[in-house]
Structures are given as structure tokens and as C-alpha cells.
């Protein structure tokens, strides 16, 4: 969150996916922030407590909406989880909305690369 600063659409909501393979964690993070109500609590008390703790910690950073400062940086933190092997335990984070920043790269058959901004 500190690196994202005021770039995500303000005030933010954050989805966190834990477990599965990395592709599963990514889907879970998007699902968490896109399909759950922002005013609900996770049914598992451990995750509900972690959602609340992370939301409070993010708002204590003082980033505020669009990086203007203040105590409301985030409206929600939502977590979804899946079973996984302890040796991998992937975690993915998704912001509900990120401003329209795009980048790309074109790779040619001869190996030449071109950045597309």
C-alpha cells in the first residue's frame, strides 16, 4: 500500500487471495474485492480479524484519497482463501480500481523488444 500511494482510485478497497496455486490466489483476490459486500465480515473469525486489522493499518498510513492525506485511504479489505501446500502458500493482492495506466511490450521473432506506453 505504501508503494501504491495515491495511485489507485480513491478511496481504495483491497482484495487478498491466499492459497491454492498462484493463479488461484490471483482469482481469489479479485473475487474478494469484486463480489463481496464491502461492509460484511469474513465468516471465519481469524480472517475477519485480519481484514479489520489491515484496514485500520492502511488508514493509519495517512495517504488519504488520491494521496492527498487523511485518515480514509481504504474503505475495505477483503480476504478469500483456498487450501494449499505449506511449501508454496501464494498470496495475491488486487486493488478494486487502478487508474488508467497502461504499458506493454512487443516482442519480435528476432528477439527485438519494444516498449509500448
Tell me what you see in this structure:
With 117 residues, the chain is α+β, with helices and mostly antiparallel strands. It has one domain (12-116). It contains two helices and five strands; from the N terminus they run βααββββ. It has helices at 22-35, 45-60; strands at residues 12-18, 74-81, 91-95, 104-107, 113-116. The strands form two sheets. A three-stranded mixed sheet has the order 2-1-3. It has a two-stranded antiparallel ribbon with strand order 4-5. Strand 4 and strand 5 form a beta hairpin. The longest helix has 16 residues, at 45-60. It starts with 11 loop residues before the first strand and ends with a strand. The mean pLDDT is 91.
Domain unit count: 1
Low-confidence stretches: none
Give the end-to-end Cα distance, rounded to a whole number of Å: 24 Å
Order of helices and strands: EHHEEEE
Largest sheet: 3 strands, mixed
Helix content: 25-40%
Beta-strand content estimate? 15-25%
> Averaging pLDDT over every residue, what do you get?
91
SSE class? alpha+beta
Describe the strand arrangement of the main beta sheet, using strand numbers: 2-1-3
Number of beta strands: 5
Summary keywords:
24% strand, flat, 3-stranded mixed beta sheet, two-stranded antiparallel ribbon, 117 residues
Task: Provide a quick synopsis of the model.
The chain is α+β, with helices and mostly antiparallel strands and 117 residues long. It contains two helices and five strands, in the order βααββββ.
